[in-house]
């Protein structure tokens, strides 16, 4: 699969989804999921103008980041263990998978040590799937104010991983619920939250129609994963 062709196709589909609901395509950010792809694939994608990449595993990302251009920006989108917070704060621009107050406190601790402010998204398990991480929706609003008071944390919005399906329309309610939850969080904070990170290769058009500001695309942009160049045994 050709990354340039994939990118053109994705941009056309995003533009069409935006047109259907009266949105500006520029309001949707593409995050390229590079998990399992070697650094040379990331470099090739970055030469086409893709600059925002998401990694699931800290150990894999540490090696890959060192082999890629400095212009690339990196987000952690996979589950974060507290013992990986130090490296995560150092290597990543944003953490999209904060799913507890305890984890937020640990991130804040290492951000203070690094003299750095860490943007985060709160991951929400909207569908309540036992196989996925994330806040229960009702718990997000309970913890939000306390997380927001942490001095080195900036809450930028919410993230979710919708249930896998071959029929994207079935997960529209998941995206609608996350959008509604973001509005509730904004009411609590008295300030707007800029990001809804939702939608992946199989369902991103529905997510865009429901207000996604960031879509996380792996297969749709980079094609099938190669055999992982880096094995992260402790992740």
How would you concisely characterize the structure shown here?
The protein is α/β, with parallel strands linked by helices and 235 residues long. The protein has helices at residues 3-21, 39-46, 58-66, 85-91, 101-113, 137-149, 172-189, 204-209, 219-222; strands at 29-33, 52-55, 73-76, 94-98, 118-123, 153-159, 195-197, 214-217. The model is unreliable at 228-235 (pLDDT under 50).
Describe this structure in words.
The protein is α/β, with parallel strands linked by helices and 235 residues long. It has one domain (3-222): Alanine racemase (TIM Barrel, Alpha-Beta Barrel), CATH 3.20.20.10. Helices cover 41% and strands 16% of the residues. The protein is built from nine helices and eight strands. It has helices at 3-21, 39-46, 58-66, 85-91, 101-113, 137-149, 172-189, 204-209, 219-222; strands at residues 29-33, 52-55, 73-76, 94-98, 118-123, 153-159, 195-197, 214-217. An eight-stranded parallel sheet has the order 7-6-5-4-3-2-1-8. α4 (85-91) packs across α5 and α6 (137-149) packs parallel to α7 (172-189). The longest helix is centred in the first third of the chain and has 19 residues, at 3-21. The two termini are 29 Å apart. Residues 228-235 have low confidence and may be disordered.
Please give a handful of descriptors for the protein shown.
single chain; 235 residues; alpha/beta; TIM Barrel; 8-stranded parallel beta sheet; 9 helices; 41% helix; globular; disordered C terminus
- The span between the termini is 29 Å
Number of domains: 1
C-alpha geometry: globular
Query: Mind describing the biggest β-sheet?
Result: 8 strands, parallel
By secondary-structure content and strand pairing, the structural class works out as: alpha/beta
Q: Could you please say which CATH topology applies here?
A: TIM Barrel
Rg value: 17 Å
CATH architecture: Alpha-Beta Barrel
Helix content: 40-55%
Note the beta-strand portion: 15-25%
Sequence stretches where pLDDT stays below 50 over 5 or more residues: 228-235
Mean pLDDT, nearest integer?
94
């Amino acid at each position: 699969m050709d990354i340039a062709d994939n990118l053109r196709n994705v941009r056309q589909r995003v533009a069409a989804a935006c047109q259907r609901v009266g949105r500006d395509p520029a309001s949707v950010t593409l995050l390229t999921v590079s998990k399992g792809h070697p650094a040379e694939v990331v470099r090739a994608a970055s030469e086409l103008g893709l600059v925002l990449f998401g990694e699931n595993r800290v150990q894999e990302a540490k090696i890959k980041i060192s082999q890629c251009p400095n212009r690339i920006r990196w987000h952690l989108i996979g589950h974060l263990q507290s013992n990986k917070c130090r490296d995560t704060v150092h290597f990543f621009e944003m953490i999209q998978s904060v799913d507890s107050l305890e984890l937020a406190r640990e991130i804040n601790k290492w951000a203070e040590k690094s003299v750095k402010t860490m943007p985060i998204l709160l991951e929400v398990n909207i569908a309540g799937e036992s196989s996925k991480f994330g806040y229960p929706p009702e718990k997000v609003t309970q913890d939000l104010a306390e997380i927001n008071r942490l001095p080195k944390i900036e809450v930028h919005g919410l993230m979710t991983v919708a249930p896998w399906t071959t029929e994207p329309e079935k997960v529209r309610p998941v995206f609608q619920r996350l959008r509604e939850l973001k509005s509730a969080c904004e009411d609590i904070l008295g300030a707007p939250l800029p990001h809804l990170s939702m939608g992946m290769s199989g369902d991103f058009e529905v997510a865009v129609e429901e207000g996604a500001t960031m879509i996380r695309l792996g297969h749709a942009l980079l094609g099938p994963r190669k055999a992982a160049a880096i094995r992260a045994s402790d992740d």
